[in-house]
């Protein structure tokens, strides 16, 4: 099967008509109330991926707020989501000329049909296309080998037991230098780097960046830790509309201590722009 | 006047009895409702310092939640605060065994006495003293000269016009390598480093770390930009109770673009622990 990222544009799913759009679509039931059936297609080790969930909340806020793009969005993950019915409730906090702020919560239903809050989010939105193009970024793109020298889940046996349907939604090619964990030899360094895209060829957009920052294997795997590394909180800065083509994602952990670690992600587009930066606080099981 | 940071412990203001505690104290008027008179003593270029405001909100949440310490706290700054009466309203979002989450808003009053929201915060709290002491931090403390070779506002003419009362509350000694801006020769590098403490000698604690991450001059000054750099959003991870003694704060900007920049701050204590990490998104006036 040809690599979706290199498929001719005519065969790639368009932004708005792709799996990611279908699975993050919310239906406005009333002002500030949006329904969705969370997809089972974006699970990692049986858990619904946190970046996918953030994108769902981000899409609802984009509808609720007068500005279209998340500039900075912070999510606190309260209880574990599962595929199935959910509702997002949004509040407009403040509307301004260039920035608006909002809050959103995602709820699911317990056995009695009562709403249980899964995630709460605060965000400030703006218009990325209205930003001046004065770019003085001093950060440099990650050193990652060309895509043909990188490897994805399809290239070897499934290294992580349990269903991870998300791997079928993504084009993920990991830097071999951050793949030791999959071969039983973790590097000991808290780093993870990959080429990233969507399997159906959909180009990136500001909302799919919210997925991209949380879609790589945990840096904990390269540190030699196993098991689930649940996200407590994730904050993403979206700084630029990504250019078409594959993204490069680089994740770093430098402060594993006391049963927690931080993961810092940078997302670079094909025009060498640093289009998103994120930091999450996650829990680890030590030993 | 002897350096407060080196004053004998008996002369240093105790945690709980110092300026910082007096000026961040909130009075619970009712469950989830706290009054405070925001101090004029923590202003920078006439604006109330964002870290001081975050500490006020953090103190209210510490009272409202069953866990004492902020682990991760995200603030969106909506409108500019000013010294004077304010109210903080908190909501408990979820209580758990090791983590609890809450939300808080700070309001002030307009000419008609109506509440105007200044800041909204989401946070997850825990107990820092209950964390295992397994520390695998790979980050290293900043390279900063000994305190005696660093310089604070008291060491030269005031380089920033306008009242900045906060400088009287702090023991701040900047790395000469990040002081070029004060001498008319900014380095061009988005870096700011300093030894940090409180002027009355109070040791750091988890709440004062919320101040520390936002208390240095803006990295924008070293990039050669002048003027106000208002914070849009600030997220702080508090990872460890700081040891007594001065802190080292290192701030870096790598992505100045489109009229915004990020500031990443690290706070290191006297035991060489990385006690706090933060990232803020701020607006700049270009040109």
TrEMBL record, chains A, B:
It comes from the Bacteria. Residues 39-124 form the Acyl-CoA thioesterase-like N-terminal HotDog domain. This is TesB-like acyl-CoA thioesterase 3. Gene3D superfamilies: Acyl-CoA thioesterase, double hotdog domain (2.40.160.210). InterPro entries: ACOT8-like_C, Acyl-CoA_hotdog, HotDog_dom_sf, Sec_Metab_Biosynth-Assoc, TesB_ACOT8-like_N. It holds the Pfam family 4HBT_3C. PANTHER family: CHROMOSOME 23, WHOLE GENOME SHOTGUN SEQUENCE, THIOESTERASE DOMAIN-CONTAINING PROTEIN. Residues 160-284 form the Acyl-CoA thioesterase-like C-terminal domain.
């Amino acid at each position: 099967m040809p690599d979706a990222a290199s498929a001719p544009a005519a065969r790639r799913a368009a932004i708005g008509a792709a799996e990611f759009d279908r699975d993050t679509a919310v239906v406005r039931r009333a002002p500030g109330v949006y329904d969705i059936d969370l997809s089972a297609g974006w699970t990692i080790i049986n858990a619904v991926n946190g970046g996918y969930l953030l994108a769902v909340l981000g899409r609802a806020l984009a509808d609720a707020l007068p500005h279209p793009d998340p500039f900075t969005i912070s999510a606190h993950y309260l209880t574990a989501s599962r595929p199935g019915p959910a509702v997002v409730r949004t509040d407009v906090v403040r509307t301004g000329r260039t920035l608006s702020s909002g809050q959103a919560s995602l709820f699911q239903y317990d056995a009695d049909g009562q709403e249980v809050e899964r995630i709460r989010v605060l965000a400030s939105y703006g218009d990325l296309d209205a930003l001046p193009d004065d770019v003085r970024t001093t950060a440099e793109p990650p050193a990652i080998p060309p895509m043909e020298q990188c490897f994805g889940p399809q290239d070897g046996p499934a290294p992580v037991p349990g269903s991870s349907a998300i791997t079928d939604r993504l084009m993920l090619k990991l830097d071999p230098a951050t793949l030791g964990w999959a071969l039983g030899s973790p590097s000991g360094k808290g780093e993870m780097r990959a080429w990233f895209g969507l399997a159906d060829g959909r180009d990136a957009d500001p909302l799919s960046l919210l997925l991209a920052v949380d879609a790589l294997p945990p840096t904990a795997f390269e540190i030699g830790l196993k098991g689930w590394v649940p996200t407590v909180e994730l904050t993403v800065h979206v700084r630029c509309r990504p250019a078409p083509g594959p993204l490069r994602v680089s994740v770093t952990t430098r402060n594993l201590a006391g049963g927690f670690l931080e993961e810092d992600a940078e997302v670079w587009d094909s025009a060498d722009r640093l289009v998103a930066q994120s930091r999450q606080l996650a829990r680890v099981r030590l030993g």
